[in-house]
Amino acid sequence: MQHISESVFVGLCDILGTPQKVAIRRDTEDIMEMVNKEITPDFLTMQILSGSLREGFRGMGSDLDLMFYAAKQRVIMDISQSEYYNTANTTLILSDSSESPPGFTLLQLLTPTADKDVQLSSIGHQSGPHENEEWRISFSQAEYKHIDTTLSQAALDKLHDLLHHDQGLYVFYGYRDISWEILGICQQIAGYLQDALYSYKQSLTQRQGIQHISESVFMRLCEKVGTSQRVAMRRETVDIKEMVERQLAPNDGTIQMLSGSDRQGFRLKGSDMEHMYWPNDHQVIMDMSQSEYYNMANKTLILSDSSESPPGFTLLQLLTPTTDIDVPLTCFRINDRVFISSSIFRQLTYLASLPNSDIHGPCVSGDVAGLEYDDTLCFVCDYWPPSASSWIDRCQSWPDPEIVDDIVRNGCHFVAVGHPLGPHANEEWRLSFSQAEYKCVYAMNHSQFLTYGLLKLFLKEVINHNLGKNNTLLCSYHIKTIVLWTIQQNTLPHWCPQNILVGFWVCFELLLKWVREGICPNFFIPQNNLFLTKVNGSAQNRLFLQLHEL
What we know:
By secondary structure, the protein is an alpha+beta fold. Among the domains are: 2-70, no CATH class; 73-144, no CATH class; 149-207, no CATH class; 444-550, Poly(a)-polymerase, middle domain, CATH 1.10.1410. The protein is 41% helix and 17% strand. The strands form four sheets. Strands 7, 8, 9, 10, 11, 14, 15, 16, 17 and 18 form a ten-stranded mixed sheet that branches. Strand 15 and strand 16 (371-381) form a beta hairpin. Helix 6 packs antiparallel against helix 7 (193-206) and helix 16 packs across helix 17 (500-517). The protein is globular, with a radius of gyration of 28 Å. Residues 119-124 and 170-176 have low confidence and may be disordered.
């Protein structure tokens, strides 16, 4: 009998999945929903996969069961729970099951709603007194995920006892305040609000000073920006998605890469959704010897010629015929050589974009349903540019050698914008290191990443507050450049929660220095001064005074 059971078990593993395969299915869904919750605006609808697929099955004939709910609507069980919600942006609904059969309820709308369809769908008990008005209570989420609350409570009790009675044996006195704060967060999540309030008060009385404030800022930034685990999940989800898409992309298709803040792991309110796109069958090379590594029957080769361009910019020479219908329209000649014009390429991209779009640098920018986007069409190069070779030599302590090797192996991109002071401003292309930059951000520890996030928030909420997009001198790219230089130069030896404000001020002082000098060296090509065309003259002086007074 035992042998038969084992055979059946093996057979079921083949049909339904091994424990590892089932766990991967579940983890994938959990991560996807966690990421979607982070990036979905409040006014949109949230989605939960349920049924057999959510439980881990992949049987033939299984339905795709999905549940949807409005992100800004919440059902409460009694009126006292309403105090935990901001009714200015959340529609509250009260469950009243006093006259309904078990598992069913009436829903009373307590606060106004902008949703016109809020009363259109319900399933009542067929023999209940309010069959057409009742709602059935669903436990789909609880059914696929069981949490042992007794273990969670036991862990909270142990932490509570430790902080009450420990005399510095297990928890160093310098960290007792942050430990109380962690306990308070755990208690708040578990629903013990009075205990959480006590723990928060205790955290404030343990220790004062810059380290305590830094630790508190660290915790608040973890809430606003994300914990290290959540940030890692966001990144891995995007990485896996793009890896699969590139494996499936046809040779004549278009490759897409998420860039900007979202790619780095942020989910900050108001951030643009930035993407880069390039034709899979076009390749830029740095010198003619690299052409032998490509099959020119299905690849269009483009040569980078930066001999007459400012640092960080180049002309792109079309070497082989192209099947792209737009590229020939952008071509111009210098002597007997055919080049691709960045300004014409950018204009063609704009003409093919969505209505009400604008050109912003190399990007086409716009707004769809309240979400701002920046789309950039570009060309890809598998080789690291010689003009950025000094960056490799600088990477002695950060990032790690394997990360540097990975960055160099994956090359760079060329985006359609020229240097305004260059000899070929309308024809030149700018080297883009977006892929290298997000990999450098990935290499940051979480304190460094949160310091970067704090500086981004400071730029938006303080420095550029109430300034229009066209009136700002500093942008988030300048902030990223400052953080990358600060980390690589080892200006602050220890990046940790206790030093997060020190890290902030080290970066801010470097910003002040650069604004005073009018120099912001590109992280990969230092000869490319990012302040050259905007932060100069009277504008530079005004910006320095503004920053100095903060």
